[in-house]
């Protein structure tokens, strides 16, 4: 067996080997080689190294500017280098970063209070990511199910709830689940917006129904109002918990603090993560007071969860959104939607536009989403491709009309490059 230290002890040997000889001098290519040597190969990355950001722009190591219409998958929701986030981080880092859940932490209490204020009175548990928040939600469903003889959980096909074993079992996309079985048992996946299937599967044996009211990773599919309201009605009737995954759609992304608020319903619990602390890892679940009682001392925990730094920054994020951005998101969201409609008129390759607020998808036909994405990268525009036919747009909440016009210019250039290329 090879001694791993042989490789690790002399990193300069990498430089001396293939890279220099093959003329790969560019810093990104050097990183690509080093990463191949040392980092698990579970991501396909673009050959871009983002070094710094400012507002809605990012800059790579070559100094190239990119308009950020992705936010690191809806994480940098207040953009980059936001002065309020920098101050909150600096002030808190100077005091204390981590204390442990063995002691009281005022920041986490204030954040939980804030979450109650902007949603419904309830109890919050803090963790460090989306999938962990959903793991907690699954534990809630099992606690409740085991006490009430309700073994089943229902979730939607094409959903995304994370990649740890529990959340992966909820995620309704086989491409993520392949080769990782056995998954959790008693999880049923139904078609979105299919009320009759929902009615058929719902009964007294169901402990929880999980919904992303806008399927994000699945391609930005907002659920129909009647389906979500029927889901609420059936959950109430059969005493099942309705749990909304707001990890991507929450924090104001769709113009309300939480996307479920568009449906005039209240879930029994919801999960948050992604942009909650603008890039500092944090996740949470917020649970109505009555089911929250199922968790007792020792029933769940996290070492990092709710640490003073992450909760301080999350409080700042929610305050900034509450003070100045919710209305903005709706206004700019409408402007972005109108811009996308015009694009659709100009390019027959765009066959559908879906979304709300600042969460949009373009469905394509006749061109590959990955080719359009590459062309956008060349124009200095960061977007996301889902599969081969969907473009996902998740711009930061601070986006202005001027920057949406810049997006329009850039994506049009990308389209025309791509279409001329295709013709030749
Ligand atoms: C991203 C995402 C998750 C998983 O979050 P991680 O922090 O990557 O674990 C879960 N649910 C939804 C809806 C998401 O968008």
Radius of gyration: 23 Å
Structural class: alpha/beta
Number of strands: 17
Given the structure, what is the number of helices? 15
Describe this structure in words.
By secondary structure, the protein is α/β, with parallel strands linked by helices. The chain is built from 15 helices and 17 strands. Strand 13 and strand 14 form a beta hairpin. The protein is globular. The N terminus is likely disordered. The site of pyridoxal-5'-phosphate has 15 residues, from helix 7.
Short description:
With 424 residues, the protein is an alpha/beta fold.
Task: Note the main attributes of this structure.
globular; binds pyridoxal-5'-phosphate; 17 strands; alpha/beta; 424 residues; single chain; disordered N terminus; seven-stranded mixed β-sheet
Topology:
Blueprint: H1 4-8, H2 12-21, H3 27-38, E1 50-54, E2 57-60, E3 65-68, H4 71-74, H5 83-95, H6 106-118, E4 122-127, H7 130-148, E5 152-156, H8 165-170, H9 174-177, E6 187-190, H10 195-201, E7 206-211, E8 214-215, E9 221-222, H11 225-237, E10 241-245, E11 269-272, E12 283-288, H12 289-292, H13 308-346, E13 350-356, E14 359-364, H14 369-379, E15 381-382, E16 384-386, E17 390-393, H15 401-423
Bound molecules: pyridoxal-5'-phosphate.
């Amino acid at each position: 067996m090879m001694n791993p230290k042989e490789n690790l002890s002399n990193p300069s040997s990498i430089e001396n080997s293939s890279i220099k000889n093959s003329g790969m001098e560019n810093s990104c290519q050097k990183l690509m080689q080093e990463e191949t040597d040392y980092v698990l190969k579970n991501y396909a990355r673009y050959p871009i190294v983002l070094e710094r950001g400012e507002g809605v722009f990012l800059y790579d190591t070559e100094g190239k500017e990119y308009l950020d219409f992705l936010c690191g998958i809806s994480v940098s929701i207040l953009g980059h280098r936001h002065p309020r986030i920098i101050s909150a981080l600096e002030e808190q880092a100077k005091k204390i970063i981590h204390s442990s859940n063995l002691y009281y932490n005022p920041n986490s209490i204030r954040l939980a209070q804030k979450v109650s204020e902007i949603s419904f009175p309830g109890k919050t548990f803090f963790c460090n990511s989306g999938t962990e928040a959903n793991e907690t939600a699954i534990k809630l469903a099992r606690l409740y199910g085991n006490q009430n003889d309700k073994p089943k959980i229902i979730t939607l096909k094409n959903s995304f709830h994370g990649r740890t074993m529990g959340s992966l079992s909820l995620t309704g996309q086989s491409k993520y689940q392949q080769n990782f079985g056995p998954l959790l048992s008693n999880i049923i996946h139904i078609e979105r917006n299919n009320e009759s299937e929902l009615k058929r599967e719902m009964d007294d044996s169901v402990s929880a129904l999980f919904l992303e009211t806008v399927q994000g990773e699945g391609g930005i599919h907002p659920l129909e109002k009647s389906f979500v309201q029927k889901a609420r009605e059936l959950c109430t009737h059969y005493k099942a918990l309705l749990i909304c995954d707001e990890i991507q759609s929450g924090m104001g992304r769709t113009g309300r603090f939480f996307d479920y608020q568009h449906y005039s319903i209240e879930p029994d619990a919801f999960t948050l993560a992604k942009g909650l602390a603008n890039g500092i890892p944090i996740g949470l679940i917020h649970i109505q007071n009555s089911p929250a009682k199922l968790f007792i001392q020792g029933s769940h925990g996290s070492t990092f969860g709710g640490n003073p730094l992450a909760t301080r920054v999350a409080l700042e994020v929610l305050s900034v959104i509450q003070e100045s951005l919710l209305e903005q998101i709706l206004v700019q969201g409408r402007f972005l939607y109108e811009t996308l409609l015009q694009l659709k008129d100009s390019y027959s390759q765009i066959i559908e536009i879906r979304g709300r607020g600042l969460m949009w998808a373009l469905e394509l036909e006749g061109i590959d989403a990955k080719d359009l994405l590459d062309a956008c990268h060349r124009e200095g525009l960061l977007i996301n491709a889902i599969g081969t036919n969907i473009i996902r747009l998740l711009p930061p909440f601070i986006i202005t009309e001027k920057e949406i016009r810049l997006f329009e210019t850039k994506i049009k250039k990308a389209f025309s490059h791509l279409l001329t290329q295709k013709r030749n």
